[in-house]
Amino acid sequence: MVRGKRILSVYFYLFMLVIYLPLLSLLVFSFNDSLSAGFPWRGFTLKWWEAFFSDTVAPITVRNSFAVAIAVAVVATLMGLGLAFVLVRRGFRGENVLLSSLLVPMAIPFLLIGTSLFLLLRVRLYLELSLFTLAIGHILVALPYSSLVLMARLIGFDRSLEEAAQDLGATGFTTFRKITFPLIKPGIFVSMFLTFIISLEDIAIARFLCGSDPTVPFFVYGRLRRFEGLPLVMALSSFMVLIALAFTCFFLISAIRARRE
Known about the structure:
Layout: H1 2-29, H2 47-54, H3 58-89, H4 95-107, H5 110-124, H6 131-155, H7 160-167, H8 172-201, H9 204-209, H10 216-223, H11 230-260
Helix pairs in contact: 1-11, 2-11, 3-6, 3-8, 4-6, 6-8, 7-8, 8-11
């Protein structure tokens, strides 16, 4: 038993090292006075970070990406919560069809989804490409993940707690606010975090739907086509990593608190 725990501990630390070492090295090399992302170390410098903050486009892409990702996380989680309640709590004819249709975006490459949405929104509906159309695309691909996470949370939910609250005179809204929501809150946080990341890292759909409002992945892809753009990209990516880690810590702390409560 003790040996098994040690093996699992070693595996866990190796896994964390593999996951976070590239991010840590990216952060370190963003302060290296060199055009290449690697050794030898040529001295500490802040000029790449200064170039990032003084760039006319890079900070705007960060703002665009986080604005879209936050909107997608909120809307996709709300929609996923509604679908989860319908699929778990309401048995109806066509339930399997709805569930299968919900999972279709998970099986289609983002490139095809971006092309289809471009033809629908721009060519057929004549909508101007913007962050709004991009958010529509990201909500479409993020909704299945949100729904599945929340469905799993509701399936293991003890409904006798809700019934007891209603027997004591609680309304439906009060039951949801005081009983249901606190118990499914960890699933809501996981859903928001997952959909936030899906939106933040996308480039295929953004290529078709962002219009003149570029996001970080699209900006990084364009700058990496030139070798001299690598240091600025490293600074921008490091800035995104720090913000993403801050969001990760927030979601984890919130989920742990909700679990303890």
